[in-house]
Amino acid sequence: MRTTRARTGRGRRRGSWSVAVGAALTLTLTLTACGPEDDSAGGDDGGKPVASESSAGEHKIRIPDGVRDRLKEHGIDLGKWENGAWRKWDKDTWLRKAEDYVNPIIDGLWDPDRMRRAEDPQKKVDDGDLADDRGVTDPAPAPVEAAAVTPPYHDALPEAGKVLFDSPEGSMVCSATVVEDPAHPGKSNLVWTAGHCVHAGRKGGWYRNIAFVPAYNNAGKPTAELEKATREEIAPYGVWWSDWAQTSKEWIASGGPTGGAGAPYDFAVLHVTPENGGGKSLEETVGGALPVDFAAPSAAKTASLTASGYPAAPPFDGQALYQCPAKPGRLSLGPEQPTMYRIGCTMTGGASGGGWVGRNADGEPALVSNTSIGPVRGGWLAGPRLGKEAEDVYRAVSDKADNLS
């Protein structure tokens, strides 16, 4: 989620929802996502045809067919990229447009320590952003205490996991959900998250080294034990790199680290491929995928939604999976923007992108939103109400999948 305040230090963490608020009436909203960290190594191939492969020390970069040419078009030298050029965020070379997405796989980049120490990205909104709400916004909901999911997480929520990525501020983390692919029933490689977990919005571009880890820390090990955990223990279902991602044109045009602009369109869909190859899809590997409901009822007609995620800002540390079941209300950020869902929930930064699950017309569980913003002190979350724009993004990534396989 996104906050309005500068990040404070908690060990290596730079982002926090618990920052002191300067004025009592200031409302600060945060994107629940990720945070900076050391640059190490880790990567994945996904079993696709390899057009280029080189090595640097213990790591190597793997480029599926077609990606190498796109990299060259953007002036990216593969050898330099692998050896650290991806850490350079020059605004003149930061890829920004929807069609510019490239995400070369670097073997070993997401090692256990790097995964564990990635932090949450944040977005802020102050009370001025809520001033012209057309009288639509409901009273702020009472906080709902986030409940820890009983491990193993895969048994309770096989579709849930983390999105890891690198930003100019360092290594970051969001939450995400495996969703069905209408073009590949039972064999989906699609993941739903927040737009601010993949793209910086109006003043930035695509983040790098984007990967999905289903059932992160599946056994629910305490943080102290994770310091010595193997990659298999932290990522029992593997690391899945995003070979394609798409977010809304509205997020790219207006989204940012502060203010409410873009938040009602703060969603994204990833197509992923397994780091270590293999013939099974993500859905087959984890044993499930949620349908997405683009015709979900309004907040007034919705009895309950359940938000899930890995909150990372204090008092949480990003290593455990939590849930908040709550009755949704409405949040309006302005007369020109769609109304968002809002629920009471104490999850903090890191939960961004996590799925909100309700019941579809058939009474079956379905994803109806994702966490986007929340106040810096915690207490509630807001997520976009998914409509035509979200469905267009979803269908476009599904259609793209055949060209990536």
TrEMBL record:
Chain segments annotated as transmembrane: none
Basic and acidic residues bias spans: 56-66
UniProt keywords, alphabetically: Signal
Keyword Kinase part of the UniProt annotation: no
UniProt region (Disordered), positions on chain: 36-66
Top-level taxonomic group: Bacteria
Keyword Cytoplasm: no
UniProt signal peptide: 1-33
Name the record gives this protein: Secreted protein
